[in-house]
């Protein structure tokens, strides 16, 4: 591992995972936009899913663009641009996408709204290409997966509070009885989000996050023990890569499809109005946060005894975050306390697995 990535400070890693928060915040906020757009633009349920489609298709398009650019310059783009710089550029691209919400709201254009979301996610794709490997190499390789779980937990923290904050911004009050939010009410929160992207991009540019990864040194370290790594000519020849791609495709598909259709289900089957849906979406993402926070315990420099204790405390800490943000938002969460027992059942299952 290169010196630039091995001798890092913990504050550098904590700075890095800021972008993981943004990814979750925006992705979950899309679930609030879907019912708003559906009503404002008189869309069918299938048409309203274009919000999620525009957002997540951008990840595939972004990776393909990255591949072709890297081939055209005959080298990996981030190796030339720099990983930290790549995240900053991705944030600026995402900020440009949020600016599209202003003319889209003023003209009442659904297509322009989708374009803005597509550009936001296009920036996210570059950020993810850079941030994920950085999260792995910034520390002991043995705990790299646990650092990713920690970063994923921060991502789910964003997904937990995102629906609440965006709901407040759009409806004017988290307890409002108004379900006829105007399209113009969408532009302000996204312009503020764009400003946040720009500020964080500048902050990243001057942070101590490594800008380069010494890939040659990493390859040499691998080559020292050929029994652990079977070297192949092409990355796609590794079955764990393409099987992992299939796994992620199925997982994200289920995750996003559930969240995107949850508002309509709650409205049609449980008669819950659009402006009251946010805490249910928040709990959905908080459930993922519970799992990821628990899985990240191993990334901390604690004793084994402390880690075992945290393994059973962390789910309740994560759930407390959900309770706290919804309490601040003045939501009636009395019906959600039963989740304490659901968590207990999962912990017992983990003990006896």
Descriptive key words:
disordered N terminus; 16 helices; mainly alpha; Growth Hormone, Chain: A; single chain; globular; 353 residues
What is this structure's SSE topology?
Elements (H helix, E strand, L loop, with lengths): L2 H4 L3 H7 L1 H23 L4 H4 L1 H23 L4 H5 L1 H17 L1 H7 L2 H28 L6 H28 L12 H22 L9 H9 L15 H32 L7 H18 L8 H25 L10 H13 L2
Helix pairs in contact: 3-9, 3-10, 3-13, 5-9, 7-9, 7-11, 8-9, 8-11, 9-10, 10-11, 10-14, 10-15, 14-15
Give a concise summary.
By secondary structure, the chain is mostly helical.
Give structural notes:
This protein has 353 residues and is mainly alpha-helical. It has helices at residues 3-6, 10-16, 18-40, 45-48, 50-72, 77-81, 83-99, 101-107, 110-137, 144-171, 184-205, 215-223, 239-270, 278-295, 304-328, 339-351. The chain has a single domain (3-222, 238-289), classed as Up-down Bundle (Growth Hormone, Chain: A), CATH 1.20.1250. It contains 16 helices and no strands. The longest helix is centred in the C-terminal third of the chain and has 32 residues, at 239-270. The radius of gyration is 21 Å and the shape is globular.
């Amino acid at each position: 591992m290169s010196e630039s990535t091995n001798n890092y400070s913990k504050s550098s890693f904590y700075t890095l995972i800021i972008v993981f928060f943004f990814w979750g915040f925006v992705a979950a906020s899309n679930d609030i936009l879907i019912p708003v757009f559906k009503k404002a633009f008189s869309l069918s349920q299938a048409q309203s899913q274009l919000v999620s489609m525009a957002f997540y298709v951008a990840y595939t398009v972004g990776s393909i663009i990255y591949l072709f650019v890297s081939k055209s310059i005959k080298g990996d783009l981030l190796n030339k641009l720099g990983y930290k710089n790549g995240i900053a550029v991705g944030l600026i691209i995402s900020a440009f996408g949020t600016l599209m919400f202003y003319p889209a709201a003023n003209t009442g254009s659904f297509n322009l709204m989708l374009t803005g979301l597509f550009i936001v996610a296009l920036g996210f794709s570059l950020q993810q290409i850079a941030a994920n490997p950085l999260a792995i190499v910034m520390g002991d390789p043995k705990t790299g997966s646990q650092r990713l779980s920690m970063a994923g937990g921060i991502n789910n923290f964003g997904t937990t509070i995102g629906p609440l904050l965006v709901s407040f911004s759009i409806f004017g009050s988290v307890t409002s009885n108004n379900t006829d939010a105007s399209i113009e009410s969408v532009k302000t929160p996204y312009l503020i989000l764009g400003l946040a992207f720009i500020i964080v991009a500048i902050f990243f540019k001057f942070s101590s996050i490594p800008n380069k990864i010494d890939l040659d040194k990493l390859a040499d370290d691998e080559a020292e023990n050929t029994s652990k790594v079977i070297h192949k000519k092409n990355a796609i020849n590794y079955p764990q890569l393409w099987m992992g791609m299939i796994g992620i495709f199925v997982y994200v598909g289920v995750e996003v499809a559930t969240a995107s259709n949850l508002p309509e289900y709650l409205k049609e089957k449980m008669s819950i109005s659009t402006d009251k849906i946010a805490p249910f979406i928040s709990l959905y993402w908080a459930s993922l946060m519970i799992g990821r926070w628990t899985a990240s315990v191993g990334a901390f420099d604690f004793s084994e005894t402390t880690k075992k204790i945290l393994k059973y405390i962390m789910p309740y800490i994560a759930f407390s975050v959900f309770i706290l943000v919804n309490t601040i938002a003045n939501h009636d969460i009395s019906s959600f306390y039963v989740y304490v027992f659901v968590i207990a059942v999962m912990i017992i299952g983990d003990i006896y697995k």
